[in-house]
Amino acid sequence: MSPRKDPDPSASVPSFYGAELRFLRESAGLTLDQLVEGSFRGAPLLSRIERGELGMPMDLAVHIDKRLKTGGFFQRHCENVQQARRSGIAAYFADVVEMEVRATTIEEWAPGVFPGLLQTDAYVRRLVRAGKPWLKGKEVEKLVRARMARADFWKRDDHAYYWGILHESLIRRPTLPPGQMADQLDHIAAVIRNSESVLQLLPEAVASGPVMMGDLRVMAFPDAPTIAYTENVHSGQVIDFPPLVTEYRRSYDLLRAAALPPEASLAMVEEAARGYRNEAQQRD
Fold it and tell me: Residues in domain DUF5753 (predicted)?
C-alpha cells in the first residue's frame, strides 16, 4: 500500500480547510464513511475535500459541523466562499471550475448551448441577457468577465484532454447576429484544432438518446475518482457515487457512437461559419 498523501495546509485555502477537516475527523476517531453517514454526499467526495482538491458544499459543511461539534466553523467558511463566488460564477458550478484545472480528461455533452470553455464574449453576453434580462449592465459585464476568465484553461501546458459533443442544432440556430455567429464557430474550430482536442456533432436526425435534455460533463483525475456533472437551467449537480458515474460514462459513450466523426464535425462547423460570414457581408 502506498503511503498516505497528506495535504499541505499552506498550499491553498482549500488545502488548509482540507487538512483541518482531516485532523478533526481523525481526532474524533471517525472514518470517511462514518463522517458522511446521514448526509447526501459520499466518502470519495469527502476524501477529495480533505486533500484540498475541492471546496466543501454547504449541505456537507452543516452536516460536518454538527457531527464534529465545530461551532459552525465549516459553514462560516462556505458562506464566505459563496459570497466570493457571487462575483461571477454560479455557486453550483464553482467546484467544477476548480476541478477542471486538475482534470486529465474532460468529456462534455452540450445539447442546448455551446460549452463555457468554447464561448466567445459576445455569446456569453447574449446568454446572460437572455437568461437574466433584469441585470444591469455592470452586472452583466462582471458575469461575462468571469466566464471568459475560464478560457485561461487553454493556456495551460497541462490542460485536460478535451472531448466535446455538441448537438448539430447549435451551429444551425443563429443565436447571434451572422457576423458574431461566424466568430463563435471559428473560435470553436480554432480552439479544438490548436489544442488537439476532439469535437463531434450529434446530427439533428438523431431524435432521441441518453441524456438528451441536459448538459453532461465527465472528468477524470490522476489521483482521484472520476466524477460526473449534470446541469439544467439554474442548477447543477456533482456526482461522485461510482455506480452512477459509470452509468453516465456509458451514456456518454452511446452519444459518442451516435455522433459524426471528429473531422467531419469540424468541417461542418467551419462550413457553417463561412455561411454566417457570407450572410453578414451581404447585409453590409
Answer: 93-271
Count of domains forming the chain: 2
Same domain assignment for residues 78 and 128: no
- The strand ranges marked E within 105-214 are 105-110, 161-167, 198-202
Q: What is the CATH number of the domain that holds 63?
A: 1.10.260.40
28: phi > 0 → left, psi -120 to 50 → alpha, else beta; which?
A: alpha
Instruction: For 44, list phi and psi in degrees, rounded to 5.
Output: -60, -40
Q: What is the pLDDT of residue 2?
A: 45
Amino acid at position 15, single letter: S
Q: Return phi, psi of residue 102, to 5°.
A: -105, -10
Statement to judge: residues 180 and 237 lie in one domain: yes
79 and 108 both lie in a single domain: no
What pTM value is reported for the model?
0.72
pLDDT digits (tens, 9 = 90+) for 123-157: 999 999 998 899 899 989 988 988 888 888 999 99
Cell 462550413 belongs to 271
Given a contact cutoff of 8 angstroms between Cβ atoms, the answer to whether 58 and 78 are in contact is yes
In which domain, by residue range, is 251 found? 103-283
**CATH number for position 179:** 3.30.870
Question: What contacts 78, CB < 8 A, 6 or more positions away?
Answer: 55, 56, 57, 58, 61
